[in-house]
């Protein structure tokens, strides 16, 4: 379970996030929406340790991870994708996932130089886990392809497979539908729902495509100028005057 309590983040004079709180359990999908510059990505950057929160706490399964370094937070089970796809060009789809897989290697220094039995077993295990991650996003048949040769929608799925390889208990998806065509958005929506249904992790989803985020999230958090202006079910936030004003402007 993820419990974020009253986090703040300033950049000089800019208040990027003010008093943001959220509690999410495995199987839930939380949408975080709001106009450009509302502080959504900064929330992800604080949760994943890219930025240190100025105030507030991030508790994961009872452990305070607010001040941990980025790699330690990742090991605790926070995995994410980025607005701009970050894949390794020149590495196959499978190798892109294997780079993200944290095998917590047990073989000795000797195994680093000579393919010992333990090393071979671990490599086989890593391969199988990563192929399973690709299968979960429907990408196993592209394992040997180069990501740059694949359609954008597949590259987005590959990013999600990379995040799955980190054994997440919280999956942060930052605008996963950016640049996708309507068919790809619909497939992505089905994928996110099926991943959440596994109840392996909670999904936090930043998205500008409101039809996507409203159709699959149980709870929506609406940000504007760093503040949460509404939290509720999709129906509740759609009917909230402050939300309508933030998106459409105030009627004179
Ligand atoms: N590293 C940084 N240094 C200075 N200001 C920053 C930094 N990161 C974010 N900001 C500022 O914090 C505010 C919130 O930015 P953020 O990227 O979190 O918004 P967002 O809601 O994710 O926007 P978008 O939807 O456009 O991605 C903006 O005013 C932004 O310029």
TrEMBL record:
One of its GO terms (cellular component) is plasma membrane. Its EC number is 3.6.3.17. Keywords: ATP-binding, Hydrolase, Nucleotide-binding, Transport. GO terms for biological process: D-alanine transmembrane transport; L-alanine transport; L-isoleucine import across plasma membrane; L-valine import across plasma membrane. The keyword Hydrolase applies. Residues 2-250 form the ABC transporter domain. Signal peptide: none annotated. InterPro entries: AAA+_ATPase, ABC_AA/LPS_Transport, ABC_transporter-like_ATP-bd, BCA_ABC_TP_C, P-loop_NTPase. Pfam families: ABC_tran (PF00005), BCA_ABC_TP_C (PF12399). This is Amino acid/amide ABC transporter ATP-binding protein 1, HAAT family. It comes from Parasphaerochaeta coccoides (strain ATCC BAA-1237 / DSM 17374 / SPN1).
């Amino acid at each position: 379970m993820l419990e974020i309590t009253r986090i703040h983040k300033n950049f000089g004079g800019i208040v990027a996030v003010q008093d943001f709180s959220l509690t999410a359990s495995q199987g839930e999908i939380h949408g975080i929406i709001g106009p450009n510059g509302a502080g959504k990505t900064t929330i992800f950057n604080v949760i994943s340790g890219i930025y240190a929160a100025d105030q507030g706490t991030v508790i994961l399964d009872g452990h305070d991870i607010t001040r941990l370094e980025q790699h330690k937070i990742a090991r605790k089970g926070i995995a994410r994708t980025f607005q701009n796809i970050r894949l390794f060009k020149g590495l196959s789809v499978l190798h892109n996932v294997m780079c993200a897989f944290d095998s917590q290697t047990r073989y000795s220094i000797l195994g680093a130089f000579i393919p010992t039995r333990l090393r071979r077993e671990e490599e086989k295990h890593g391969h199988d886990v990563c192929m399973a991650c690709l299968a979960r996003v429907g990408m196993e048949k592209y394992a040997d392809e180069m990501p740059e040769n694949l359609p954008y929608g597949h590259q987005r799925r590959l990013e999600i497979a990379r995040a799955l390889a980190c054994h997440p208990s919280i999956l942060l998806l930052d605008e996963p539908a950016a640049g996708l065509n309507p068919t790809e958005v619909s497939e992505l929506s089905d994928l996110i729902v099926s991943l959440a249904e596994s109840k392996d992790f909670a999904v936090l989803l930043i998205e500008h495509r409101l039809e996507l985020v409203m159709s699959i999230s149980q709870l929506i958090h609406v940000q504007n100028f760093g503040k949460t202006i509404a939290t509720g079910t999709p129906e509740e936030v759609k009917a909230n005057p402050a939300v309508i004003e933030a998106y459409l402007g105030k009627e004179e």
